[in-house]
Amino acid sequence: MTMRPPHGTTPGTSRGAPRRTPCPAPSRPPGLGPGTWAEVPRRSRQVLVVTGHDRNSPLATAVLYERTGVGWRAGASRAAHNALHGWTDDHREGDLRSPIGVHTLTDAGGRLADPGTRLPYDRSDRFTASGTGFDGEPLSGSFDYVIAIDYNRRPGTSPLDRTRPLGPDRGGGIWLHIDHGGPTRGCVSLAEDAMEELLRALDPDREPVVVMGDAASLER
């Protein structure tokens, strides 16, 4: 004999069990306040969020978010370094702080061969780092892969281009590059495998940007 479920229930559920309402997809990546989010171009569908641990800390976390049909999907969380003295809203040459803000990501390059990025890629032996960092760590290999952050530079050119539209006193040459195990002078650095992954993931058709700064600043 076939048993029928009680009226008002469905097989596999108990009478009166509460229905679960799906959580709504986030309208923006977590940790970004309305002021910061307003600076992100509406057409951007890839947002790399670099969150500094503190205003004066050289430690950060980087996550690539991709816009999907149901909201923003987070990639892996990656440890990162930023400038020795932390972050600033008014970056100046030599201040040893990374510039807070939203910047497009349009160009890449490095000493090594293109790992398969869709960004324009300039392979050159001029991507050479030498000497030691602030913690005495060797800098060799730091520029094997780089992605230019479009702060005070001309998009659509090699990361090596030294044009500074805001003037030389506002700094420049702010890149994403391979981590050397210590603070940077202004760039953001990630482990080599994370840089390779990021280079392959970024798609110019998705108009990628980086949103970077200390957590408190990004929440504004």
UniProtKB/TrEMBL annotation:
<feature type="domain" description="L,D-TPase catalytic">
    <location>
        <begin position="87"/>
        <end position="211"/>
    </location>
</feature>
<dbReference type="InterPro" id="IPR005490">
    <property type="entry name" value="LD_TPept_cat_dom"/>
</dbReference>
<feature type="compositionally biased region" description="Pro residues">
    <location>
        <begin position="21"/>
        <end position="32"/>
    </location>
</feature>
<protein>
    <submittedName>
        <fullName>L,D-transpeptidase family protein</fullName>
    </submittedName>
</protein>
<feature type="region of interest" description="Disordered">
    <location>
        <begin position="1"/>
        <end position="38"/>
    </location>
</feature>
<dbReference type="Pfam" id="PF03734">
    <property type="entry name" value="YkuD"/>
</dbReference>
